[in-house]
Amino acid sequence: MAKVCIICEKEVAGGMRVEDDFVIRAIRSVKRRFGWAKNNELYVCHGCHDAYRKKRANYERDLAIHVILAAVVLVATAALPLFGGGFNIASLVLGVLLAAIIIGLSLFSHIPKASGNGGGAAHAKANVRGAGAKAKRGRRE
Ligand SMILES: [Zn+2]
To answer: What is the whole-number distance in angstroms between the Cα of residue 81 and the centre of ligand 1?
Structure first.
């Protein structure tokens, strides 16, 4: 299996290993079905660490905004009919669909988590801190 950097898309010797999340698994299973699977191992190479961190931060912010938007849409479509004097299942279904589409849109800019074996002692320390912050985020999500 080739190791490929997800940022520069070049083959790399090593770097931060990208964690398989449900988006990557979903993409893989679709690709396998159509016979497009390359089965590359996904990495972030040393040269792309900074670019990756920026992209990942952007993605996390985008995802948060999309989730809030989806929640607002859901609440609005669920609550508005109540003011109009009745529960409306059609508008609730529409709201759920809209919310799913809004969250789905954020997946186009999906940047997976990466962690790993990047280099010297300073790197290792940073990674430990990163892992801690990530665990906290994981519990919130
Ligand atoms: Zn790279």
So the answer is: 50
